[in-house]
Amino acid sequence: MTPWLEDNHVSTVPHPGMMPEELDGSGNEDDDVDFALQLVSLAQENLCIDPDRVFATGGSNGGMFSWELGQNEASADTFRAIAPIIGLPHRAHLDAPAKDGGMPVLVITGARDRTVPPGDWEDPNYTTTTDGDQYYYSGATAITRVWAEANGCDATVPAASVDVLPDLDCRSYCGGDGDLPPVLDCRADMGHVYQFGWTWPLILDFFDQQT
To answer: 53, 80, 146, 207: which has the fewest C-beta neighbours closer than 10 Å?
Structure first.
């Protein structure tokens, strides 16, 4: 298992020989959740890890799976927070986190994304792909309202603007002691791309504040 170090963060890349043998992340939700939990267990066995500060992030389908890790009772208690990039739950998965007291989430989407569109601000309706396929997703406003309420925030009022980065529109239904509230919806002027140059540092900053 190879650790990537960045300041005080360790991102683990499992060596193929250390991957769980019984599961392969094949797309079955239960199997994939078990697979992710086995990866966490392997990391804890081979690295010095604070079990209270384990986080999940992913992009596109991986972002959708990040939501599943927070919504699934089998995995929610393992993760402190999630940060999906250009990935929203499918229409039938508008569920709160399966963790007492809620779970922090940083949602990063592209305002021009035709593959997983976030929808309009304060529009709770589902969204639909316009890139040739036809998939239905929970809009960014709808899912962040549900998660904000689970975190004890008032989602009956419009989300307030949060100054995070230039040219990045971030809003939240939650306050917070740090610079970044526990449920934060950020939408960039981009399509279905990751833009790790700024998304990755932002995710690490967000995770740092969720103590």
So the answer is: 53
